[in-house]
Amino acid sequence: MVTILHTADVHLDRAFSGPGMSQGVAAARRQELREAVRRLVDLAIESHADAVTIGGDLYEHGRVTLDTGNFLRQQFERMAPARVFIAPGNHDPYVPGCLYERVEWPQNVHIFAGLRFEPVPVAEGVTLWGAGHDGPALRQNILSGFRAGGGGRHLLLLHGSDTHAVPEGKPVHAPFLAEDVVATGADFALAGHYHSPRLYPQANPVFAYPGSPEALDFSEEGEHCVLRLDVGPDGASPRLLPFGRVSYSTHRIDLTSMITSDEVRSAIAGLPEGGIVRVILEGQLHPDVDLDVPALYNACAERFAFLDLVDRTQLGYDLEELAAETTTKGAFVRVMMARLEVMAGDDRELARQALVFGLRAFDRRELTV
Fold first, then answer.
1. Is the Cα torsion angle 209, 213, 216, 218 positive or negative in sign?
2. Which of 218, 224, 190, 221 is nearest to 40 (CA)?
3. Stated pTM of the model
4. Residue 16, CA distances (Å) to 34, 91, 106, 141, 261 in order
């Protein structure tokens, strides 16, 4: 039996430059990605894996440092004599001057540098065929026309898009379908690019995405895994292993029934501590509530690894009634409502905030910008 641990889409040296994310938090997140690599190597050693495969996007080409390259070299060297096989993806393509060229890798590391599938023996009777991206935008199906030849079991390692299930907003790179994998004659394909774990088809899988080992943003809530693939005389048996330790979560708090800012603060403080948390404040905001988002953040942020507060509350004013007033306030509301009707996107949101601030000023309430 041959055992392989498969991962992809680690994205070492990622910027983590989202709204409100400080340099310190971003640095901590980058360190967590390194720790994921370290834990993967530990797992490979503990489980006596024959090899670790990485399906691309191990790092981010535009930001990666030699410090990270040396870290990877040291970690992979710990696994010897077990092998490490890497198929570069669109974020870590094999291009002149890339990290893959600049690091002196140990003998147990093999990087697939070309678009044509290259065979490498993993163990007696098991051959791994790998191909890597040579640029950031590979649009061709690299499986088209390829056939795995020879006896024994054959595996594929690639970074590409299963085109029957492209996640919303995810660019298509090296597109393929399950039937393309079957047509190669390979027993199984180890893929990278999609950040959620998936075996396809579930009943009798022919390829798998392990997903990113750690969640990278709020679009990746849920369990994150590595893949264990056992290859024997009867074929390839894949199993997703829970692995991620970083927790992203989104919570919605309806402020409609609240009449003090203390109630809002208590609701946020009542959420589970730790993790990377986004809180969406929504509902109808009572005019008497001083919703000071920066103050809420300062009061609650230390409970979480990172806190993102999003104000999506609606005005608690009856605008139609206010607009009917023959007062300066009424004139102000009429002008702002007319502007809101022709605005969209960020401009509309800024105008909405201006309307709220203006009404609070008319009510002689202190403003917080």
1. positive
2. 224
3. 0.84
4. 14, 15, 30, 31, 31
